[in-house]
Amino acid sequence: MSNNIVEINYHQTGKSTNTDELGMREMQAKVYAKRQSQYLLVKAPPASGKSRALMFVALDKLANQGVKKVIVAVPEKSIGKSFKNTELSKYGFYEDWIVDPQYDLTLPGGDKGKVDKLVEFLHNDDPEARIAICTHATLRFAYQRIEDDRDFDDVMVAIDEFHHVSADDSSVLGTALKNILHNSTAHIFTMTGSYFRGDSAPILTAEDEALFDKVTYTYYEQLDGYQYLKSFGIDYKFYQGTYLDALPKALDTTKKTIIHIPNVNSGESTKDKYGEVDQIFDVIGTVVGQDENTGIYTIKDKETGQLLKVADLVNEDGRERVQEYLRNMTAPEDLDIIIALGMAKEGFDWPYAEQALTIGYRHSLTEVVQIIGRVTRDSSNKTHSQFTNLIEQPDAKNSDVEYAVNQILKAITASLLMEQVMAPQIHLKPRKKDEPAQSSDGNGTSLRIKGLHEITSDKVRDILENDMNDLQAAILQDAAVKKGIAGDVSAEIMNKELIPKVIMSRYPDLSDEEVEEVRQYTVAQTNLQHAETESTVDEQGNTNDFLKMADKFINIDDLDINLIDQINPFQRAYDVISQNIDSSVLRTIENMIDAKKYEFDDDELVYLYPQIKKFMFEHNGQEPSKDSRDELEVKMAYALSTLRIKFARKRAENESED
User: Fold this and answer.
1) DSSP bridge pairs for 300
2) Measured between alpha carbons, how far is 595 from 587 in angstroms, rounded to an integer?
3) Tens of pLDDT along 191-242?
4) Is residue 235 within 8 Å of residue 387, measured between CB atoms?
5) Which of 206, 392, 556, 618: CA 20 to 30 A from 253?
């Protein structure tokens, strides 16, 4: 196991995979308890059983709630198999999930015919026409053919991978959902493993989201309740040159691995995806042959001599044979390594996968969550799962330094989010006189904090109970916060200015008092969730527990919101960067961040340059400081960072011309 940036251990309780008398897992039972809700939003990780949870609710609505039809929409055809015929009654439920093949519109066939079939299904009065499975695209096109939203009266519309929807006016699916929501009596069931999107567009407007009941099942609840998986790690490895040179040290061929190569338009790509696959083969070992029927390669491992089965999902030729083989795998020995580009992410099921090796940061946090979800399924062949990200290290002489810096910042903020998502939530409460600071019960650890506000509204309670991960994702994706993380911004600015701005933007209907409540709990949760606990014994033999947050130690008995507010919750990200790359690269990152804090035109830089030289001469070579109280000195410091970036780019251009 490598020395990971993030390392989280679980208790293997079996709780999340055990079933009750109705054949439901813990998460599914939570969803079923809300089956009477007309609008339901389920947020639960991959492999938690969301598909079957939908089946239970849909069958109840058909049998007991006056719903006449169910439409299940999935992002792509391959995910349709998650909703195939399923025996539920043999495990205790009262009815099986049966889909008439003519209405499984994710099976092979022309797309136009599928749209016609969905429209026909919606208008078919036959009581046997109950359940249809289709893609998001089929639902979109069918909706455009339907003249009256009331055609969805008494229909349950279920949308899988709900993060594909957007409240943006340009989103056809988002607009369709909004109209169905407001203009019909439809029941709407939505579910996703990563509710936050990679862009800034909300999935639903705040007003529409308030109409939904929510069931949130956390990654920690899921992974802690597994039988076999014991730990999860995130690591970042930095390289210069091409990733193929760094790959041998990052790839562990003894682990069942998914390798995601970079998009051909990204800076990490060699622009020859087929050549990259060939070179990865060479890193693994020697190709022995390829099965004509399945398309699977056999490669002799250069280190161990073991024969490995490798799937190539990058090459289009023969890909359907490979996919068919992957769909029918039943044992760990059926496959060892998958090499993919845009595939083997969302909805892909290979429970035996132990390691995701991803080259280049992906364009959104959602994609990172989906990739991680491929290796966090419970399986008897593994006790540890691993996400390793190969990231290009910025070089001041390289004209792509800005791209490389942005990739590092995205990667580090993603690791921070996953650290919050994958670990247990701490239950925070205001501390009253004579109450203990810490207590434990069947629901986990509770910490009582002096000065922490009481929760005064259901809106705040709903955010803290159901939206904490999404809010943390929004905070980490905020441009000002990201700059602050890399620029080592003060705790006061981060906690009292930047974080509240994100909260107000995400929840515009909150009062000032409610914003402050959400802010306090968010900052405290983020700081405390991964605080290290240390114990000491005083001269009287009393044990004192301390929490280490960033570089500060706080006695648990002294926990106070004012003390917590003095700690930057993202200081750890800056520490991670500092520990994993050398000082010259760190300066390059800082220069790039600093250069973005002021916008200078060329004339202003020409004016400031002699002043910078004069300042350094008068101060024995000391550079102007961005932390100075003198406004001109601060401006000169940022101008110097901008000039260095410009000089580096110019030098790189001259070298490329030579």
Assistant:
1) 286, 307
2) 12
3) 988 656 554 566 777 788 889 999 999 889 999 999 999 999 998 888 888 9
4) yes
5) 392
Residue whose structure tokens are 């400031």? 608
Q: Which two tokens stand for residue 583?
A: 């000082």
pLDDT tens-digit map of 233-283? 998 888 888 999 999 999 999 999 999 999 998 888 999 999 999 999 999
Can you tell me which residue has the tokens 């920690």?
Answer: 220
DSSP 459-479: HHHHHHHHSHHHHHHHHHH-H
594 has pLDDT over 90: no
- pLDDT tens per residue, range 600-610: 888 888 889 99
The residue type at 267: G
Encode 319-347 in three state secondary structure: HHHHHHHHHCCCCHHHCCEEEECCCCCCC
Kind and range of the H or E element at 310?
Answer: strand 307-312
Residue 48's Cβ-count burial label (10 Å; 0-12, 13-18, 19+) is: buried
Tell me the CA distances in angstroms from 378 to 31, 223, 449, 536, one per residue in order.
21, 8, 36, 38
Contact 589, 577 (CB under 8 A): yes
589 Cβ partners below 8 Å, 6+ apart?
394, 405, 408, 486, 577, 581
**Distance from first CA to last CA of the chain, Å, rounded?**
45
Q: Note the pTM of the prediction, 2 decimals.
A: 0.79
Tokens describing residue 500: 């509240």
